[in-house]
Amino acid sequence: MRFRAQLANAATFSKLTASLSSLGKACWMRLEDGIVRFTIIPDQGTQVWAQLPVDAIFEESSYILESNSGVINLEVPIGALHRALRSAVAATSAQLRLTKKGNVPLLALTIHASSWTTGSNALGITDSGHATPTGSVEGEDAGRAGQATTASRPAVVSGPRERETVITQEIPVKVLHESAIEGLHEPRCRDPDVHIILPSLFQLKNISERFTKLATDSKGSAVASTISPKLELSANMHGSLRLAIATDALRISSVWTDLVNPSLDPGQLSQAEIEQLPSERMRALSDNDEAGWAKVRIDGKDWGRVLSVGRLSPKVVACFIHETALILYVYLPGSWNGEDSCLTYYINSYAA
Amino acid sequence: MAALSFSLAPEALYQLHDALTCLAKFYDTVAIEAEYDLLRLSVLNSTKTAYAAFVFEADGFFESYSFDMPWDSRKAGRPDRFCCQLYIKALLSVFKGRTREKDTAVERCEVELHEHPDQTECRLGIKMICGLGVIKSYKLTYEPTTVNHAVFDRTKTTNQWSIEPRFLREITDHFSPSAEQLDIYSDNGKAVFTSFTTKITDGKEILKKPVHTSVAIDKKDFEYFLAEDNLHIIITLKDFKAVIAHAEAANSTITVRYTRPTRPMQLAYDFGGVKTEFTLMTAGDADSDIPDSSRAPELSARQTPAPASVSRANIASNTSHMPPPRARSIRPLTGTPGASARGTETSSESQRPPPASIQFDSLFVPADDDRQWDVPNDEEEEEPEDRLGWDATGDQVRHMKRTFRGALLIQASRHSTRVLPPACKTMSPECLPRTPVMRKRWVFRRRNVYHR
Q1: Is residue B253 within 8 angstroms of chain A, CB to CB?
Q2: Helices marked H in B274-353 — which ranges?
Q3: Where in chain A is the domain with CATH 3.70.10.10?
Q4: Which of A221, B65, B88, B231 registers the highest number of CB atoms within 10 A of its CB?
Q5: Helix (H/G/I), strand (E/B), else coil: A266
Q6: Class of domain A2-114+164-181
Q7: ipTM score here?
């Protein structure tokens, strides 16, 4: 079993792991030929199923994957991986490989970083007093003193100079056997009632957090600490999205209009099939008909963690299944094929 | 009754604040010692594995500085310095860093000690003279204390390097915030810093195992690097970070000295009238790189049972009657300015009989006696005498007391041993120590020692 690859896009990889780590601690990382998958299935809250083409984060030519099944499944502490990757963001090169130390499998990230000295120690001042610290060592220590001066360098540096740092981050991982993951499947849902492209996630996140905070503050503290408030998110097929929260004390909502309800790819579905979809029935309803809105109730804090994926500045299609679930298709920007690199978030709707 | 007063310019005030912030990372109380030509702030952490000291020079740091200890107050055993301790938090709330206030910014700070034997409360009076005629006055209650100095003999240093703290901070930035320890070694032109955590995890919790991070930098990044290759030395990362954070703020190049694992490491740097010294205990494989010849003293040290300071004290007092077998320069980490000179060249003012059976290669602790780094246990404190109980200095202090009182002085001076200036102690009535351990000590001290 062998895996080794040069990072091509450490910044994206780092942001991706940051977003994933907000939802869960352990991540199932599945390395395949051409595709890398990340899956987080927390005990409670939102699931993420992400798949990226290898070249989204790795240099394809350096991607080496050897395994009997052609696939390597790892359980990775995603927070630790993210922290490690932060060292790689400004690096000249970084390599990720699967290795072993004793009995512990590791993902070893080797980073070469270079920077320029400011030349502030370029004064060339050599302190002769310091230069011979072993000179006064006597007797039994004399032998050691000889070894001690294996490397010495007078501090004569002129001007700025390139300095290289090698950073090795060793993240302990667990290699998962195929049997451990065969029971894991992506959730299956019925066709959505409404699909809509979300507005700026940054804006959405800020407003959602403000709503959540208002609702938390208006509640009694004892209740607030145990149950986080539920946001009502709804949308119709006429480009409107509504974010609302209601408590005994307040009822607030924000509405976005003129958003895009993306059209479905005719290459995937025939015209006849498209006409059968619930979303087309919803589209047929007038835009001021309340029945044309599909609504879900989601946990405010969990929603905030989901929206942290905004740091990747993606395009997000939200699919509403009325009173059942919200599915987000998060497409990463960039040159790679959008169809291949997608993070899918499955968010359950709470009962009213 | 000691008289101490000094004043500080705003810039010095900020430096004092920075120093206190740094010291606060080691422990919650700071020992303050005043001498004629310096003021020293030092902290020994609770596990006694790290010691930090800032020495502010009377001439270089203060606007004005005056200290006087009248002769009549210098009783036997009481050295010519004043010592007390305070909560660092209390000091930090007084000595704040740079503030945004413009009009009422501090223009000068005056500190005065109020120590009167006939008063029940002894206080440190601090006056902040601010703009627009605003004067802020603070009175802080201090506690008596016995100051322990970690001792580090620079002449025995076998490994030494010096580097800008910025480079070290860049290294520690890569470490996981939960990392606890730092291993330093060099290999083929590279210096390698590895952070790790010695946490016991069972096999199922692989994912909870801490990340190991190692950062290798070129030896060229150092001002100079004189250390044995492949000598792994391990220190506590938190202490290391505390030092480099301050050194970076002070923009001073750090010099690091050590001999080998299980012996202390000293980090030091000086700037504008301030001298700093940090002595950290190290761990690692002590025997790995040591020639056989140098092991002999360690073995003898192991034979002397030193779990408690009782036995250590006995050893010391027994050996004190023997002619000192050798003269070694033993200096306190933060001796008075020129202490090194005094320590090595004069022998008249105080004496320290070196124990015959324990060689102090580095003197921070007797060789290989790890237990001295442990938390002191309470039984130890039951000894009805001032007991410092943590390192060689502790014994020395005890000896100093006897020395000054009796014949040991003469005997010892006859043999011209190298000496250690006594650690100081000052007591004030009604200034109760706060920790239980200290309280016990205090009880004895008040009963037996403290009569004015």
Answers
A1: yes
A2: 296-303, 309-319, 339-345
A3: 2-114+164-181, 194-348
A4: B231
A5: coil
A6: alpha beta
A7: 0.78
